[in-house]
Amino acid sequence: MAKIYSKKNQLTTTMKPKKEVVSFLLNYSKALHMIKVADNSFEIIAN
Amino acid sequence: MIADIQIPDALLVQDYIAGKEEALATLIKRHESKIYGFIYSKVSDRDVSNDIFQDTFIKVIKTLKSNSYNEEGKFLPWVMRISHNLVIDYFRKNKKMPLYRETEEFSVFSIMTDDALTIENQLIANQVELDIQKLIEELPEDQKEVLIMRMYKDMSFKEISELTGVSINTSLGRMRYALMNLRKVIDKHQIILTN
């Protein structure tokens, strides 16, 4: 008996950003501190 | 993770603002496909999509960390709006700056122009500005006031009407007459005000 080759369902690939981008964002968030002085906001990136 | 599904976005945002960095990771993981997919659907370029995705979340992070975010249960629509605006900025920038490659026959300097005024034109522009200021002095006081507020102080007609104590329509009328009278004065003195 011949094998039945069923067509695989074409899965739509879920698009995602690069892992490096997400990793950068998480590190950026950890390093970023916002300080408010009077009416001004200052961003400080702690290395 | 089941725990991720149960915690609503609004709570994750609260946690993040309170200092829990893992909350941001959860939010990104939850929504990255939708946001990235949306950006890619507009720009059709993976590298550009990554850049815009990154810029989107940098704005999100800054807004949340500076406590400028108003939680109305609409985190995802807010982030999508930011990414949408960045996509528009990308297209605007691209339209203004087409990519030119220099070849032997073609130099980019043949189409680049420097829009800055020459010294001579700058002197003429300064003189024209001085002439206009003298002409404005010849206007009736109420018209002069509105014109100066509008053109030199960049005020809206609403602000002008509040400051001068008249209706917006009156301010608009005075501005209209100011310009008409200015043109009459220019014609009367036969002044040339072009550069």
Quick tags:
heterodimer; A: 47 residues; alpha+beta; two-stranded antiparallel ribbon; 1 helix; 26% strand; B: 195 residues; mainly alpha; Rna Polymerase Sigma Factor, Chain: A; Arc Repressor Mutant, subunit A; 2 domains; 71% helix
Question: Could you give the topology of this structure?
Answer:
The complex is a heterodimer of chains A (47) and B (195).
Chain A: H1 19-31, E1 32-37, E2 40-45
Antiparallel strand pairs in A: 1-2
Chain B: H1 2-6, H2 9-17, H3 21-43, H4 46-65, H5 75-96, H6 119-136, H7 141-152, H8 157-164, H9 168-189
Strand content of chain B: under 5%
Give the CATH level 1 class of the largest domain in chain B.
Mainly Alpha
Unreliable spans of chain A are none
Shape verdict of chain A: elongated
The H/E string of chain A reads HEE
Instruction: State the helical fraction of chain A.
Output: 25-40%
Q: How many domains in all of chain B?
A: 2
Task: From the alpha carbons, calculate the radius of gyration of chain B and give it in angstroms.
Answer: 27 Å
Q: For the record, what is the CATH homologous superfamily label of the largest domain in chain B?
A: RNA polymerase sigma factor, region 2, helix turn helix motif
Main β-sheet of chain B: number of strands, strand sense, barrel status? none
**Which chains make the largest contact?**
A-B, 19 and 21 residues
> What is CATH's topology name of the largest domain in chain B?
Rna Polymerase Sigma Factor, Chain: A
Strand order of the largest sheet of chain A: 1-2
Query: What does the main sheet of chain A amount to?
Result: 2 strands, antiparallel
> Using DSSP, what is the number of strands of chain B?
0
As an assembly, this protein is heterodimer
